[in-house]
Batch of 3 targets.
Target 1
Amino acid sequence: MPIVSLPEWQEFLRHHPNAHLLQTAEWGELKSNFGWTPIRLTTGKRGGQILFRKLPFGLTLGYLPKPITPEDDMATNRQFWAELDLLCRERRAIFCKLEPDAWDQDPRGRSGEYQSLRISRHSIQPPRTIVINIKYSEDEILARMKQKTRYNIRLAEKKGVRVRPWDDLVAFHKMMMATGERDRFGAHSLEYYSKAYELFRSGGMCELLVADYEGVPLAALMVFARGNRAWYLYGASTDDQRNLMPTYLLQWEAIRWAKSRGCETYDLWGVPDHDEAALEAGFEKRSDGLWGVYRFKRGFGGELKRASQAYDRVYNPALYWIYRLRMAGSEAG
């Protein structure tokens, strides 16, 4: 079986500079500290870092996020799937969830090789997002934003909000917890954010930025970059001085950081899973879930995108049926 070691995986990724963040060795090591076991497979130009989660009675769940699938290798390389099947069966996986590194309507996400997989109604990563093209000059990026967003960025600058690198993970975690309680989303532990910062920043793939006013932190975010892509994964703000619009300047400086690293796209990572017409019709009326997030993110001039559908490769049909039943029940509740 072509399982590779961590150093071998890092060497493999060197030949795929634009592989997704979730396929990096650092992401696997992060998850290994919080209940997942990463196993890395390569067959030719194809590769995947599979995460396994232990279940009772020696069973597991497998998760393959954004695997590396070169276009010239999509339809013919069956060996990877055979090796994945062998690995999952050895690990007694009920199923392995696959999320292709492709957008909806992209043929790479609808390849014939996925026909043996079940289309899944449930994804792990946010299915819909806004992606900003940052190949342009800073003036052009600003010009593509909504007028109100440009105004808020300049207001924050004019009023004396300052954005700078930060390393106070304890304060960042407190801010994340407060934001999660206010906006009703789950935050990770202090240990999680600290480990992510440690792993990715040492390789130049992460920065923690804070927006403060007269030395008081008002908002902070953690931005990640690899190859020509950047991702805004974690962000928080206080209830203090919101009239100074610190989150707008903070996001702009994160975009500038990503651009300085040679990134061409900036993924705002998660908005409500509705088409653009529904989002535009509803964002001024709704504030539940990610609707408030969409109201903020839409102003930065990006393109609404939906990830390719998720798939499940099933190894234990009976237990998989129970899983689907429970997921359906949680949706109904």
Note: The longest strand covers residues 216-226.
Target 2
Amino acid sequence: MSAISRRAVLTLAAAVPLISTRSFAAYPERPVMVIVPYAPGGAGDITIRLLSEVMEKQLGKPLVIDARGGGGGMIGAKAVASAAPDGYTLMMGATNNFVINQFMLPKSGLDPLQAFDLITRVAVVPSVMYTHPSVPAKTLGEFIAYAKANPGKLNYSSPSAGTAPHLAVERLKQLTGIQITHVPFRGAPEALQAVVQNDVQLYLAGWGVGRALVQSGQVKALAVAAEKRLPNVPDLPTAGESGLPGYVMENWWGLAAPHGTSKPVIQAIYNATRAALQDKAVLKRFDELGFLPGGETPEQFARNSESEAKMWQDIVAKGGFAVKE
């Protein structure tokens, strides 16, 4: 090889990482859309808005939040899965978007653990069990006894069929034998409003969604389906303390990108999210809402999701909830 050829090869080789670095350094060059596949006002919408200020400072571009509900979270999820894997369309999805829908909707053609590159679990939301004040039960144990004495007369709500709040109550039914009818809604606000109106008598959601209504006396909280009591609601017992040991049901929210998004872009989004989850103001607000901060690495998030998916697959199979059409 001539000296000129060697110089040309070396020059080209030196330019490759420079080009790559410049390409990555440019991200993001425009606003980043984050689709929340549920109605506005729910926990996912609240969460991404809490993180957005710090994330925008880290990324240098604004986040455009698009609450796109419907189809048990599938409409928004499919929109993200079909988007270009360039880091400009992300999903703030709930538990079911990652580890439930593939079993509930086996013919949907969407396997979330294959369709998305997982970035991080953002917030874990222990499920508070809400009921109407007219229901003659002050504890979860009393509610279960009341439901058994009135089989088929009570209803419960969820943000949509197949969501974690839906299957969490179905798990409760499996464990206790109570008969209570499912009434799905389009989002968390509507599902909780149904409790306010006494159209349903049970709903499981985060403390942040129902706190104001509990404080105003429009709904009452029976228990939290978590291993420990919520720090800001120390008087609210756990389900285990209320006579249902082992009943731990948490909804969580995670950030993901379309499969095939480059690792440097994933890392940039993860770094921005991690910074937001370490912000004192964000953590204070999380604590007030009863959220537990996430922040696990993309690799940890993927491993944990694969493991949890097996649990939900079992619940769906035992209940025969999979949609066959």
Note: The domain at 31-124+251-319 is CATH 3.40.190.150 (D-Maltodextrin-Binding Protein; domain 2).
Target 3
Amino acid sequence: MLRIAPTFTVATPTTLAEALALKATHGEKAALVAGGTDFVPNLKHGLHAPEVVISLGGLDELRGLDFGAETIALGALVGIHTLATDARIASVLPSLATAAGLIAGPQLRRMGTLGGNVCLDTRCVYINQSESWRSALGYCLKKDGDTCHVTVTGKKCVAAASNDTAPVLLSLGACVELASPRGVRTLPLEQFYVHDGARNTVLAADEILVRVLVPRPRETRRMAFEKLRVRGAIDFPLLNLALAFDLDADGVLTAPELVISAIAARPRRVRALPEGLLTDALVDRIAALAFDATRPLTNINADVEWRRDMVPVLVRRAFAAARGPQSPPFAC
């Protein structure tokens, strides 16, 4: 049985100001925890060695859901279960509700938080193992070693992003609000992630994610989320994608957004997507572009060719889901 080594203290601030002061004092030696659904197992595996663990569970000011006329503000401590079951989320941001409902299982969804999922650490078959397993292999670039066992010659970690909310939020043009003793900064979620599995966000040592801001979608906006995994529950994604587009009364698709994740250290937007009458041919073109843009690696324990072959399948499923069960077939 893996156990947590008692090498750290736990701080329980009750205000954001207290939490920020603790983070500023301890910097990289401090770890933030909310639901702990990913952090605690990684702690048992020896992937983290903090001196102080700052529990954010008492910060009620980060639990708000604010549905404004132009922006929907989601507090970092809003629960995954809430995102999956709140009727307002399902109505206005259905792809986010779908993604949240596919995270882990019901017990973990009741513990996990939006902020924790947005900031979820990357995963790889060579790092998410016990200390003895990793030491026998000589460790890796992400922790304690100097070799990437996926790319062998590469000098940048390629552990994969596995957070299901991230591609959805990117497809919806979301921003994140980051607080520190220096003030608050807001930046597009696309700029929050970087292409390095060892540390795939720009979150500074003294910063805390406090809110996610999502532009309120237009009435014509359609959206969907699809996830590939071995089992129908619990598992991290082998591949996931989020789709969003505008569809007018004449069936013309505009402003498409397609984001694919679980293939690299950050979610990837498929760019230069075509617009036009929503037909099977248009969907096939977008599916082909997504296939061409996707190059899975052996960082996840699943066949890479199968994962890539599933990309156009998930794209077609996403289009069908976005149009809804009552929608007519694609125009010919």
Note: Residues 328-332 have pLDDT under 50 and may be disordered.
